[in-house]
Amino acid sequence: MVLKFLTVLLVCQLLGEVISRAASLPVPGAVIGMAVLFTGLIIRGAVPDGLQATADGLLAHLGLLFVPAGVGVMVYLPRIADEYPALLTALIGSTVLAIAVTALIVKGLARARPPDARGSRDGAAP
Amino acid sequence: MTARLADLWATLATSPLTALTFTLVAYQLGGWLYRVSGRWALLNPVLLAILTLAAVLWATGIPYAAYFDGAQLVHFLLGPATVALAVPLYRQFHQVRRSAAALLAALVCGSLTAAGTAIAIGWLLGASRETLLSLAPKSATTPIAMGVAEQVGGLPALTAVLVILTGIVGAVLGPMVLRLIRVKDPRAAGFAIGLAAHGIGTARAFQMGEVAGAFSGLAMGLNGLATALLVPLLVALLQGVVF
Questions:
Q1: Domain parsing of chain B, residue ranges
Q2: In B, which residues are within 8 Å of A119 by CB distance?
Q3: CB pairs under 8 A between A and B
């Protein structure tokens, strides 16, 4: 079951990769693959149980998948050590500002319509 | 005996089995510390795993490239995981459609803030040109950010590291910032964290619930697009002023 839907995910990613390269888009294949799967779900009108389980399994440990690339920090330690006051201030400052600006705009513009509880599993254990 | 041990070590040090095992053990250790600390934000499991692994590689002398080759499988799963974000997104689609105009406005302003203020702060504090150009796309997800960095003349590998650091900063500070500005709406919270802190922020947003997670995944995908379009434009505009 899981294998079947892992195959679905890979087929979508491969399609995305082909579209991205064929049209020389600046967007990576996986993001286009997400759009492909999304379109497929809209057409089908429901999420198959197995796909839900496969997606939940992958997304539950999304953080783990960034670890190998992140360890690359050790290669750039000299440059980071040279420029760390500027780098860290820019990273922290811009990230905090971007979160605040984005959240306030969504909150301000979407305020008139309270969040819809339909289909939401908010409050459930992560 | 020593020679055989050295042989065994040479074989194991560069094998995928060792790299994968170290990666998983470091991540579990990070997750365990995070839980026993009562989910203290600074003990982010991704950050702990990265620091542990960097220390182990440094202590054992295994080159990063050899480790990364071995851990490819974990890195590869980022692709299918990105595709899988379509599932929570679909489940929340009725909510996304209802706030489409707000999300679009937030996307453009948020994306420009993330790149623009990073360049501005770095420039004011005297960061080098290459560092600034590597910094500009850091809120986008790794593959997009690396592509954009290459396009504008930054260092893609440095960008990969800055992207991860940004994700950790967003995951750690994001919930505090949102509390400070009194944003409780899971749509706004998720969208903001995903826009500024891509997949690592999205992993954090899923801990707040499925609505926040779905909006975070959506913002991550959209900001990938926005960054690819806006950062080269922003860099061209600042040519001669900053660069």
A1: 2-76, 83-238
A2: 91-92, 94
A3: 356
Tokens of A83: 């420029």
Contact B103, B96 (CB under 8 A): yes
Using 50, 70 and 90 to split pLDDT, how confident is the model at A123?
Answer: very low
* B119 closest CA partner among B74, B83, B152: B152
- ipTM of this predicted complex? 0.83
pLDDT at A1: 62
B112 to chain A: closest CA residue = A98
**Model pLDDT for residues B13-61, shown as the tens digit of each residue:** 778 899 999 999 999 999 999 899 987 777 888 889 999 999 999 999 9
Q: Could you tell me if A120 lies within 8 Å of chain B, comparing CB atoms?
A: yes
Nearest-by-Cβ selection for A10 from B80, B91, B135: B80
* Per-residue pLDDT reduced to its tens digit, B181-224: 999 999 999 999 999 999 899 999 999 999 999 999 999 988 98
Nearest Cα residue to B50 out of B77, B83, B74? B74
CB contact at 8 A, A116 and B136 = no
Which residues between 135 and 174 in chain B have a beta carbon less than 8 angstroms from any beta carbon of chain A? 135, 138-139, 141-144, 147-148, 151, 157-158, 160-167, 169-170, 173-174
The Cα A103–Cα B103 span in angstroms is 10
